Amino acid sequence: MSMRRILSVLLLMSAVLLCAPNAAYAKGESAAVVVIDAGHGGEDGGAVSSGGVPESGINLQIAKNAEWIFLFLGQPTAMTRSGEGAVYSPEASTLREKKVSDLKNRVAQINGYEAAFVISIHQNSLPSHPKVHGAQVFYNTVLPAAVAAGAVQEKLNEAVNTDKPRTVSAISSSIYLMKESRHPAILVECGFLSNPRESEILQDAAYQMRLATAIVAGYCQFCRNGE
After folding, report:
1. Which of 90, 120, 144, 159 is deepest in the core (most CB within 10 A)?
2. Who contacts 108 (Cβ-Cβ below 8 Å, separation ≥6)?
3. How far is Cα 126 from Cα 147, in angstroms, rounded to an integer?
4. Which residues pair with 37 in a beta bridge?
5. Which residues contact 51 (CB under 8 A, 6 or more apart)?
6. Which residues, 6+ apart, have CB-to-CB distance to 127 below 8 Å?
């Protein structure tokens, strides 16, 4: 077994030990459901690698892996999309209308839950600086998103940012889904498609599982610390 797969297994074991169904977070509250949002979809592929691979499919695979691990642990989950398509309403016709409708529908789903925690999966891109790499976590203004982001970032630094740890950051107010969510939400930029090497490994199934496992382990660590 490769070191990459061994690390994924160890992280999964860590998540199993740390997490419990509907685990409590700050102030004794509980997230009845973890909403996993695979960014983009359909005609909106998001960021694209130099080889023409859009982030939407990568986001979906990582999101599905995270869903599988959460379900294995007994944590209720929901996916904003479970297929390649977006979730816009039938009346949307132009690409802009579809993007707006898609985001509004995702937010409506998220805000429809009485208690939830949102994990949005994305890929980054900075073509002007192709050497930039690494996974980074952003958080919205709803408590305790910032604390959860720190825990997830810690696990990502251990798993994939081994050469250069990254720090969390508040999300821009221009990111509609994060701004409009009434629940705590984090957005994970899993890597840079503009970095040739990172773009390649982001498409690797084992690496996608490693990312998902680190995200789940971080969330579980956050739950444990909040109890």
Report:
1. 120
2. none
3. 27
4. 120
5. 199
6. 194
